[in-house]
Amino acid sequence: MAxxxxxxxDRLIHGQVVxxxxxxxxxxxxxxxxxxxAGSDWEQELYRMGVPPDMDVYFDSVDDAAAxxxxxxxxxxxGLLLTGDITTMTRLVDATGAIDRVNxxxxxxxxxxxxxxxxxxxxxxxxxxxxxxxxxxLEVTAQDVPAARPMPLGELLDGTGG
Amino acid sequence: xxxxKALVAGHGAFAEGLLSAVEQITGRSDRFLGVTNRxxxxxxxxxxxxxxxxxSGATVIFTDLPAGSxxxxxxxxxxxxxxxxxxxxVNLATLLDFTFQDGEADAAAVERAAEKGxxxxxxxxxxxxx
Lengths: 162, 130
Hints:
The complex is a heterodimer of chains A (162) and B (130).
Chain A: E1 3-9, H1 15-21, E2 29-33, H2 35-38, H3 41-48, E3 56-60, H4 62-73, E4 79-83, H5 86-96, E5 101-106, E6 114-117, E7 120-122, H6 124-135, E8 139-142, E9 151-152, H7 153-158
Parallel strand pairs in A: 1-4, 1-5, 2-3, 2-4, 5-8
Antiparallel strand pairs in A: 6-7, 8-9
Helix pairs in contact in A: 4-5, 5-6
Chain B: E1 6-10, H1 14-26, E2 32-36, H2 42-56, E3 60-63, H3 69-80, E4 85-87, H4 92-99, H5 107-120
Parallel strand pairs in B: 1-2, 1-3, 3-4
Helix pairs in contact in B: 1-4, 2-3, 4-5
């Protein structure tokens, strides 16, 4: 599958994504799924500036990403799909039924969230949303960088490793 | 009036490390404030940079990676404050040159410092593969 990673990261495109994952996986494209960014030329230019010239960035709304997903998955190049929050990823999963795993890469502190990892903080509703994704058969793990161990959702949420 | 003219912002202890080197060499790390993005969301990096720029009067932000969240946040601030200068890929040679520029921290001065930084990247030795 050409999409190597389906990542939730509230920083969207940043160092860990472009360099930390981009270099070892030889990523050649990023699909940034965000309705707000997809509607703003200024936001798109901002994110594109940080990406090397040999890496393409596609800015899609959730609807466009759902329509384009099969094509991305059939690419001969390796790519990464990115959303800024759990809700957006869930919408894409529900719209396509074609995503089998989700990587939690960065969901940071905000009032109402409880710390689960150094880089994962969740509200009770967000925890439930992740359990719902797992119940649909998706493999949900937390892993900030490739060298780290992917932590399964069960271990993340209740420490049992289940 | 604060002596701070610039922020250094980056991943991990990048800023702290660079500024400790500036201090060891020049004794003038008081011209800089360091910011890390460690553990912060994009929004919080931006809030942190805004707070430090506003409280210090800094007119330049040096960042580590072009794609880094500090760079993205600095460019968001630049949108509100067009006079703010943002330099990505900063290294020690750049900061040292900037430290010794006595005039205003304008874009031309920063460009000269950036040129010093580019010139400092030199590769020697090793064996080239076929």
